[in-house]
Amino acid sequence: MQHDSKNSWLNYIFLIVLGLVMVYPLIWLFTSSFKTNADIFGSSRLLPTTYVWDAYKLGWQGTGQYGFEDFFINTLKLVIPTVIFTIVSSVLVAYGFARFNFPLKTLLFSVMIATLMLPNASVMIPRYILFNKLGWLDTYLPFIIPAAFATSAFFIYLMIQFIRGLPRDLDEAATIDGCNSFTVLTRVLLPLCKPAIFSVGIFQFMWTWNDFFNSIIYISSVSKFTISLGLRLSLDASSAVSWNQVLAMSVVSIVPCVLLFFFCQKYFVEGISTTGLKG
Length: 279
Fold this sequence. Notes:
- By secondary structure, this protein is an all-alpha fold.
- The chain contains 15 helices and no strands.
């Protein structure tokens, strides 16, 4: 008993130390938002020697015509429709692959999975040319419209694996009760798919929220900049960068992702574990 108790304490200590190591960059980011530039680059101390209390206020106001509030709202305008359309389209396509038989099903499924192997660099130029001809550049449509047509094979496959793990007896029982295919999906399967749906939503939210590469390619107007572009813009504002303001706004940009994860952690962990075990 004493040996088991000792091992438990060692495991707890190890996990606490490992957790502190993983969280330390976030702690440093937060404490450095109260430091001066000299303190940030001239000292390795975690706590500042001189506290700067207005970094969040000044950073939120911004240095030019547009403040961080505008970038925050722009990001919400981009992310929320993208996440909603991704969830809806992925569920519909996954339901078709998981529950129905139709011509060329195997071929279409193979093509969909094959798109996971395509490097982003190989489709970046054709995609840019297409969006340019459609007149979608400098808008959020290159993000929103593809999401409405289930272009993410990863999310579709995740949903397929989850739906395949649900008993077909549920579908048959609902059909006997007079439900059609759409009603079976909305009233029977969707409530059971909450873990997978939350997983898709969290992944897409975080990826789109933090996306810098695609945003800088398709968005050119400062008035439409997202948070990631706004942070980069603050570095180009002048030769003397107030790094505490940049770090303060970095903390603010992380908060929505952290809150979303903690509020949905139960469903997220359940969805990932379930889709990993089934299928």
